[in-house]
Amino acid sequence: MLPTSTTGASVTPSAVAAAAPAAAARTGGRRAMTLRGAFAKELHALMYACGDVPDPASDTVNVMEEILIEYMEQLAMEAIRGQPKSRLTVDGLRRALGRPADKKKLGRLNDLVYRDNVIAAARRGWKDPY
Questions:
Q1: Are 107 and 115 in contact (CB under 8 A)?
Q2: Higher confidence at residue 28 or residue 108?
Q3: By CB distance 3.0 to 4.6 Å, which of 22, 90, 97, 110 could disulfide with 102?
Q4: Element (H, E) at 64
């Protein structure tokens, strides 16, 4: 958690840097995994496919990547909530995507699970996975 001022003054970068070790200590000593740049290539193509210019500005891609990573973190945390172990499961994702606004994402998840079952059954030599 970043330090905040009660007087309304802005937080200095040195105060943020000083708070980072304290935040790591509260999370069990784990360092935050950085995914910066992990989706840049795919986001370039996705943004172009959705109507952006062929070569979008790098700061635009960085902002989209931050939004994407934040969404994925929130989705994973919601899927893990209520699980007996802190593991991400398909059922947890189904529960997290159960809102009406996520109907298409839930349908895509179900389609991927079905296709995975079909492939697994084909590997086992069965003709019908169900």
A1: no
A2: 108
A3: 97
A4: helix 58-80
